UniProtKB/TrEMBL annotation:
It comes from Hyunsoonleella aestuarii. The keyword Hydrolase applies. Signal peptide: none annotated. This is Glycoside hydrolase family 2 TIM barrel-domain containing protein. Residues 50-219 form the Glycoside hydrolase family 2 catalytic domain.
Length: 419
């Protein structure tokens, strides 16, 4: 079924089911739900932020597994949102062996039970089989298994589409998936920094069928410059917001002949190299400027109250790219420059955290590094001084600026403590 338009031969079913199909229209490929076009304005959502997505004009969420699937579907339906339900599939990098026929068969049966349990929910529109199955993958039988899962889903659930989110896209991968997983209804791709050149990437892949962008957002920690000691340089919250907007306008909307919508990442918060790298929200639920720009992209107007905008951040008048090295126990100064669109009173919070030593990839769970306490005599203004930690090693200085209206601007600077 790959690259085809589905739905014309589907049987009648309960009126509660949202029947999804793909049609080629004058505007390009589009998902249709119960006969009506549906352009996806969605996000990969942390469970606590679904309400905020609906409030900002989103219309869909994606998950990475069926965990709490009924709860997620019920919540989405209550808010008028649709769901691309993820089906977690074993990864080679986690040790799953696709030469093990019994393990593959057992996985298929387990997935079948989960699909049957959720397939008739009115919020469901698409199944996402696995996540980045090509990441650190060498065995082409991975795609045989994906194809069997898709065929099984179409047999037990003839009303919903199937796809498999890919880490990037190129001609070799398109040919492989087309050959071994042709039962998929369309392709999905996930990119971060290369989103800036997505139109060229699609062209070079030679793929001309329907697409979803199922993850995109901040430039990844593997794609940015690093310090001399290997610490990746994270963009501040305002630079990230600018990239979110330009990538949406220039690489998603501009490719509307093939791209049927997208799921921005991450409508929530997680630790991945830092606590702020990919999350559009803070741990306390505050929203960053990236939420503002996605609101603008989806609605054509800015939210009533906007996040603070961060213009500059220095440590001893140096910036993150300057390979800053400090002496243990010495006192240093830092300054952040911020403007608030609404002239809200700003609150400043400074923090020093050990550098993450994680070597995880692909979004796998990471530990949160320690915060070093007792270093700031004054922690509540746009300028501060602090005592460098006594233990040698790599650290980050974080600044968080809150506006009192559930918004936060943030930035960090890596530094190395020497004797």
């Amino acid at each position: 079924m790959l690259f085809s338009c589905n739905g014309n031969d589907k049987k009648e079913s309960s009126s509660n089911i949202t029947k999804s199909e793909i049609r080629l229209t004058d505007q390009g490929y589009r998902i249709f739900l119960n006969g009506e076009p549906f352009y996806i304005k969605g996000a990969g959502v942390d469970k606590g932020n679904i309400d905020a997505l609906a409030q900002h004009g989103g219309n869909a969420i994606r998950t990475w597994s069926t965990n709490n699937g009924k709860e997620v579907l019920d919540k989405a339906h209550k808010l008028g949102l649709k769901v691309m339900m993820g089906v977690w599939v074993g990864l080679e990098r986690h040790g799953f062996d696709y030469n093990d026929k019994e393990a593959v068969k057992k996985q298929l049966e387990s997935i079948k039970n989960r699909v049957i349990a959720l397939k008739d929910h009115p919020a469901l529109i698409t199944w996402g089989i696995g996540n980045e199955m090509n990441h650190s993958s060498k065995n082409p039988k991975v795609w045989d298994a994906v194809n069997e899962i898709s065929k099984m889903i179409h047999e037990v659930d003839p009303y919903h589409l199937t796809t498999s989110p890919l880490a990037g896209i190129n001609k070799e991968l398109v040919d492989l998936v087309n050959e071994r997983a042709s039962d998929l209804d369309f392709l999905s791709l996930q990119l971060y920094g290369p989103m800036d050149v997505l139109p060229q990437i699609i062209k070079e892949s030679t793929y001309k069928g329907p697409l979803l962008v199922t993850e995109w957002g901040a430039t990844g920690y593997w794609e940015v410059p690093k310090t001399e000691w290997g610490a990746p340089l994270e963009n501040n919250s305002s630079k990230k917001a600018d990239l979110y907007l330009s990538r949406y306008q220039n690489s998603i909307i501009s490719q509307s002949q093939q791209i049927m919508g997208s799921f921005v990442f991450l409508w929530g918060q997680k630790q991945e190299r830092t606590p702020t790298w990919f999350g559009m929200f803070m741990p306390n639920g505050n929203q960053t400027e990236s939420v503002d720009v996605i609101h603008y992209a989806w609605n054509g107007e800015w939210p009533i109250n906007r996040a603070p905008r961060l213009y500059d951040f220095t440590l001893e008048e140096q910036r993150a790219i300057d390979n800053i090295k400090l002496k243990a126990g010495n006192t240093y100064s830092s300054e952040v420059k911020v403007k608030d669109f609404d002239n809200d009173e700003l609150v400043y919070r400074w923090e020093i955290m050990r550098e993450s030593e994680s070597n995880k990839s692909g979004g796998d769970a990471e530990y949160i590094p320690d915060v070093i306490g007792g270093l700031f005599p004054n922690n509540s203004s746009s300028t501060t001084s602090f005592v460098a930690p006594l233990k040698q090693g790599a650290y980050r200085l974080f600044i968080y600026v809150e506006d009192g209206n559930n918004h936060t601007a943030h930035a960090n600077i890596p530094f190395l403590v020497e004797e």
